[in-house]
């Protein structure tokens, strides 16, 4: 099912747009959004961070599950998200595994959406380990199994490493969300589809025009919905000044 979802987006930018839309929507109202490349334990990762409202454990659970969305317009700020699928389809289009770190005023939570984990444990259904800490650092006793799953199957093998990612949100604001995606999708020639080395201040999409159209032909057609979101994100990116030099804009090189 996760593999199926990731084929909603043939164009990687529309997958990223899903994450930007979520941060912009009226339930989150992030003022800033960062897109970055980072290497963790030798693996290329994409990280996305916002200084929005963050999520309680219950909301994080809904985020990692399919088909829940209860967004409402606030004044004239109409939500882009309505289907309850964007995060799953977007993140799983970019890579095989994703971890979400989120902070509200009262709690800090971590959730894992990982195809590698599901394959490793031969899961018959989608399982999403979730951990919640109070802001004083105490984790809940019933989270022991989730903690073990996250430490075994994510890039972070100690609680200390998890806390350092939660602390990173503090640089963005008192509340917010940080998403790290790894095992990034590769092109037909085996390189990551993003080129992180070409430009110090930017992330380029590596695939050549002919390669992209070959990949497009091999995948299911993109829905109108993805294209709509994509158009919105272009606007949002220029509003947020995330273009070249602005800290992680995207440029198509072909
Ligand atoms: N960055 C974020 N900060 C806080 N909450 C978030 C964030 N991203 C997602 N969420 C929560 O997770 C839920 C699921 O997100 P998802 O993108 O999968 O669906 P949606 O935005 O509700 O609908 P759509 O499929 O149309 O995008 C959202 O409704 C929102 O409550
Ligand atoms: Mg969404």
UniProtKB/TrEMBL annotation:
Alphabetized Gene3D superfamilies for the sequence: Histidine kinase-like ATPase, C-terminal domain
InterPro entries: HATPase_C_sf (IPR036890), MORC_ATPase (IPR045261)
Protein name: Morc S5 domain-containing protein
Taxonomic classification: Eukaryota, Metazoa, Chordata, Craniata, Vertebrata
UniProt GO molecular function: ATP hydrolysis activity
GO cellular component assignments: PML body
Pfam families assigned to the protein according to its UniProt record, in alphabetical order: HATPase_c_3 (PF13589)
């Amino acid at each position: 099912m996760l593999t199926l979802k990731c084929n909603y987006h043939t164009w990687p930018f529309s997958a990223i747009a899903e994450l930007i839309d979520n941060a912009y929507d009226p339930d989150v109202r992030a003022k800033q959004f960062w897109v970055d490349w980072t290497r963790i334990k030798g693996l290329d990762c994409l990280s996305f961070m916002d200084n929005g409202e963050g999520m309680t454990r219950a909301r994080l659970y809904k985020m990692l599950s399919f088909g829940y969305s209860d967004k409402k317009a606030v004044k004239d700020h109409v939500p882009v998200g309505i289907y309850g699928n964007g995060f799953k389809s977007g993140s799983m289009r970019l890579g095989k595994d994703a971890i979400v770190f989120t902070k509200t005023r009262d709690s800090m939570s971590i959730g894992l959406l990982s195809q590698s984990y599901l394959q490793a444990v031969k899961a018959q259904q989608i399982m999403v380990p979730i951990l919640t800490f109070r802001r004083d650092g105490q984790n809940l006793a019933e989270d022991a199994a989730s903690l073990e799953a996250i430490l075994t199957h994510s890039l972070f093998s100690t609680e200390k490493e998890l806390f350092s990612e939660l602390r990173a949100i503090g640089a963005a604001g008192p509340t917010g969300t940080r998403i790290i995606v790894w095992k990034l999708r590769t092109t037909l020639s085996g390189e990551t589809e993003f080129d992180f080395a070409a430009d110090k201040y930017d992330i380029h999409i590596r695939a050549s025009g002919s390669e992209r159209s070959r990949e497009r032909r091999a995948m299911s057609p993109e829905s109108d919905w993805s294209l709509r979101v994509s158009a919105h994100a272009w606007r949002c990116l220029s509003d947020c000044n995330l273009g070249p030099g602005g800290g992680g804009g995207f440029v198509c090189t072909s």
